[in-house]
Amino acid sequence: MPLDTLRLRQILEQEKKLGYTDKAVFGGLDLFLSNWWMQSSTKIGNSSVLKQFKKLLPPTFSYVSTTPEKRKVWMESFLKLLENPQKVTASGDAAPAAPRTRIIAPNTPHVVTASIAAPISSVNGIASALSERFAKLGVRTIRDVLYYFPNRHLDYSHLQTVSTIKEGKEQTIMANVWEVRQTMAGGKRHTEATLGDESGNLRAIWFNNPYVARQMKPNDRVVMSGRIKIFSGRPVFESPEWEHYDEGDLIHTGRLVPLYPLTSGLYQRQVRKLIKSITDTYAPQVPEIMPAGILNRQKLMPLTEAISQAHFPQDFESKERARVRLVFDELMLLQIGVMSKKRNWQKEQPGLPFKINRALLTRFLATLPFTLTKAQQRVISEINSDLSNPIAMSRLLQGEVGSGKTIVALSALLMAAENGCQGALMAPTEILAKQHFLSICKLLGNMGHLESQSESSAVFSGIFKKPLTVALLISDVKGSVKKELKDHLSNGKIDIIVGTHALIQKEVSFAKLGLVAVDEQHRFGVGQRSALRQKGFNPHMLVMTATPIPRTLALTLYGDLDLSVIDELPPGRQEIKTKWFSPSQRELSYRFLHKEVSAGRQAFIICPLVEESDAIQAKAAAAEYARLSTQVFPNLRLSLLHGRMSAAEKDSVMQTFNRHESDILVSTPVVEVGIDVPNATVMVIESADRFGLSQLHQFRGRVGRGQHQSYCMLMSENPSDIGRTRLDIIETTQDGFKLADEDLKLRGPGEFFGTRQSGIPDLRMAKLSDTSILEMARAEATTLFETDPDLKLTSHRQLAVELARVWGAKSGEWS
To answer: Are 338 and 814 in contact (CB under 8 A)?
Structure first.
């Protein structure tokens, strides 16, 4: 057989292109050269040339331990020696064409027969049954396949010899197959193989898989990756991944091997092979969407390369560079989209400017039983500045539980009424809506005179020249009362309306809606917020949340909104003592709770679910309520609240608890929003490790609202590592924004803050904790939007196409 020098030259040239980093071939150049020299040294007929080879490849030679400068000198000498293949070979024959190499480099584009928008069934080898299985994963087109990224990669890239492998680790070898046979054990057929390299032999076994014996033959050269176990002092591969060495680029072994999310009927090897083929063929067809200037400034990997490297990376560095590029794309498109939403919202429809009555505001603030914090004063000033502009306000107000957002919202609602407009406050639950209604009535009662009040409306005099009417519209309001409220709302007799989803019903209309305030806004979908806004002619919009969001993240997710933050709690707001209790301390926690109730206080006990669930292993509220009532606190008054109750039932339970006719409220997480009981001092959270930090902080905020010291007890039986980390953090941290930062580090894209409801595109690759990339994308998007907001420039054309594709599928208006 002639000497194969062309293949060797290709690999050395690739190593030269890569800057002598020992990345041109899997397993490293030393191993490749060792194998090549062992097979080729006997074929070199020219003794002078053989001597030169031996000089360049002495037994002590180690490329990996050589400096880059010395590698360069050695490489030039070696390549020069290979310049004349006829001189090297004994016969003088030219070296044959090289087979496909293991160099992991950009692939030559295949002949493409379909566009990336085509269904995957148009790809050869994908039948309708297979495409239906992919459809369950949301993969329907070739583009979907390209962007169906693996969860993680197995590191099979480090090639070892048989003599160096160790038990228990993921390892890869290249070996010759000596024997393959089927065996029987336990009534099932298995495949067993003996294979080896120059350093030794080992055994491999595939349990309940006789098919390997049909694919692997003696004398085959294979690459094998997996975990080794030692039996009787000898190494054994158990069900390893494997493939023939001469089949082209390795897919399942000898590299970073992708692991994909699967569904019934799909298997890793099958999916991996299919995605490799589609990536090789169609990734080069994906158009570059980012302008060259951005790619150069941020040193981003080209898109086609990033897609390929995200699936089958050359190494960990390439994998991370690919991830950065794809994350940047997602966040850049997200940022440009929300900026466009803001511009459309503010510029295309003129708003109604309010005249700010400073005297009225001063009079309102003077009647409050407390002094506003500097943060509240700052935010009210920011909102009034917006309200006075002819561009409609679109503002996000963040503030911890108890920070005083309701006061801020009411000051804006009063300005709407002062200007002859109606104001609407929408809350996610009837409990919270009713609480807002009662709170507003109490505050206005201090400012004016209460003329009349019912369960669903109140009229005040002495605030404006004409009476001010506040009303409550929830599903609990029935019959003629509801009809009368709707009539008064449509003819302008109601100035401020507080409600739930009932406000966005088709039959609800406003005479002149000038301000919309949405509380706990992440509880509402994009369509619901939009529906309320459309009840008026481009009204001012204020959305509020008690869930702390890091500023950069808020500016990205809600870049269409200006941001106000109440980052200061009222004076005297107490620290809630928080402790994690292990199962052995449960009785201690119960005794403490009983002691607090005996002193006249009340308590919450939170359970995650309503029904028993073995999968989540959390106590159900109904079962827990029965147990606690009969076995633990038989002499106390307990009540139960859960999400399956009707609105009337929930309200009845809460009123009972508010009137202190109940000592302990056992509840599912419905208690997270909108329950204000100043006499409650104990919050017990069962299976606390299963909640996110932000949600735990919300639960904790239900107590500590009165004058008495309050406590939060976290119950957890067997927390995971992440769960244990959460418990440690919540125990020692009271600052909601610090908790939000930690929560971002621990949770995935859709979990932290309702991205699935927010109307923004799904994040496939980005994590909301990617703050450095997020800031990079925001800076580039801001610059781009300032110079070419409509993306009309030729260099931005492809970006405009992608923006329309990503955002076009989202229904409703921008926000």
So the answer is: yes
